[in-house]
Amino acid sequence: MISFSINSVPTLFIKAFTSGDVESILEFVREANAMRSSASDTVLFIDTPITLRTVEAVVKLKEEGYRVFFRDHHGIDGEPVNQRDVLVQQGTAKLEKLLGDDCVITVRRLHPACSTLVEAGEFKNAVAVIADPDPDGLTAAMKAVGISYPELDGDAALLDGEPFLQVTGSPISQLLAKGAATLPSYDAKNHDLRERSTQKLFSDWVAAVQGDKPAEERLMKGVAAYDDAVVVAQDLSKTAKEVLPGVVLVDCTDQPVYDPGTLISILEKSHDCRISVLRKSLGPIAAHHGVQYSLAVAKPYQDKVNLQKLMPLDTRSDPQYGVITNVSFLLHVSEYFWHEQVLPGLRALLEQSA
Ligand SMILES: [Mn+2]
To answer: Is residue 145 part of a domain?
Structure first.
């Protein structure tokens, strides 16, 4: 669990997927409430994906008497295209009905960063904040409780964008982006290493934004590690193989730490690459299946290629099952699904468009 206080407001960074996650949120808020000194009953959810479990946590907090605010940009933009979109739309409707004006769910196109959904300090007296465990969730939570700086909104939009843009923000933002790029991947043998590293990065960065020099120096070491990872990525890009026309694969299994953002942007620039595929030995699916394939569609082709259509319509997104898919241009699968489903699907897709 990633949690620490920002400007004295207890903040929990979590994506709610299980009933255990709902319990974690409820316990976190109850404990924060027992410790609080202000008379507030406000809990803010910000940038948290609208899952069944997120909705359940909000419903239960309301039942316990909290005033819950929900600010998010994961709303469905247009018509739902799959089962997951339908569930998000149903969750959105339920939250809007339950919370009324306290619920603002918009779309990324209009609000690239969630920090634009709060005023600086608007929630500085909140009992607790529940945020997405990524730089967008962090910057939005910080601003909500009153820690901000002039470039924060612009930086946050870059941090929530494509990997090669993430590291192009203001100097302070780069400390966060480069640290985040080299966080250890999920590793089943050391299952909380990624969480602990994320918590350290986030809390150091919040301190550095407020002028803490030792925290800034620790972050600078992360930048050095990032620079090394960029070199590894450049070397790895030389081993790329075109497995189908426009589909470029790099085997990254058992490699030292590399920067995926650099690797993918080199592939997209130097090859006629429509879809990049990284074969990895670390990650949530690899934890269960040994290896995972991570696919990404290059920006100019994202309107034309929907990776979710390569999988059966009722496919669930679940690392244990061997599939993770949240957006149409990214797909992670096990070795089995790569060979049985994705590769034949891509071949058919390319023949169709040829
Ligand atoms: Mn976000």
So the answer is: yes
